[in-house]
Amino acid sequence: MKSIFLAFIILSTIVSSSAEEILEKSDLSTMEKTLIKIFNPFVQRIGLRKITINQDFENTLYTGGVVVENDVVKITFGSEFSTLYPNLSEDGYAHILCHEIGHILGETSEEVQKKTQILSPEAESDYFSSAVCLKKLFREYDSMELKFIDPVVKAKCLTSYSLLSDQLLCERVAMTGVEFFTEFHHSLRRIKAISSNDKFYALPDLSKEDKNFYTFYPSLQCRAETIANGAFCSTSEALWENEVQNWHCQNGLGKRPSCWVK
Q1: What is the CA radius of gyration of the chain?
Q2: What's the predicted TM-score (pTM) here?
């Protein structure tokens, strides 16, 4: 538990910074611009104005968070946060952005929460990232990176989708969680925040299943499973876009994993 808490403090905590120390990023990448263009209409649909990506020049290693200020969705990273993740792929970074947007657009309503025990907002945002956000982004921002596709993912995407283009999109999205949390694991090892046998922060493996139940931050294994399952859910994107309250897959390969939903 001590190593978990230490890692959380090092990689996730931010102290208060003044407005002068948090500046909107001016040199947005094509991927960042595409994401903002896609999701600005959806934040406007709930009465907000726009999404911005910002840099914190005081807490330079801050790994990401989101707030709403003056009707603006502000996603903020430390100005040097990428130094923690030297091998982070663009797809992995896209997941972080989608995860933060998920805290605004993808959280379950109180009515649905009464019927389903959901106690992890972090896992909810991971599921939104893959079930909705990354699919929309990668369909429009088609800069596929060469990557290893887990045979488990390939088989499940083949089962979940009939069109080849959808199968390839599913594979790309599903592998994003493994890519990001593998780099997250190595980052913790580099700063000696965890030991080699720390099961909570162990390298994710989609041939396995986390049997534990988490109420806040799930294990890396659980979160990678969540992202993969969101990719396998073929109905979530359209249901969410049409404002169906319970837009998640309720069964099958795309169902939210039992490590955070009962």
Answers
A1: 18
A2: 0.89
